Amino acid sequence: EIPSCVASNGSEDKMRITLGQTGLWDRFADRMFSAHTLGTAKPDPDLFLAAAAHFSIPPKNCVVVEDSTSGVTAAIRAEMRCLGYAAHDDGAALGSLGAEVFHQMSAAPGLLGL
Known about the structure:
39% of the residues lie in helices and 16% in strands. By secondary structure, the chain is of the alpha/beta class.
């Protein structure tokens, strides 16, 4: 199994609401990293670096899936590969920051070589 987590600028209460609607809260409940809890927020890379350290994985071996410019910036600053999810536009803003842009979540496994 590939280690995975959620790293969000949102509070844990907000994540519980937004991720709970899709069942993702239960899936990631023990692997949530909140900027509110850690005291650091994207675009600062420390949120992603804390998640990588939790799993004892070097940042260069991590992949971040992001849909915001602040998240892409944080991933690039952390020296992590970043897949930029652009469901509603061409993803140019994400791509200009260094993300590999994709438009359908079903494409993610192929981008990850799975």
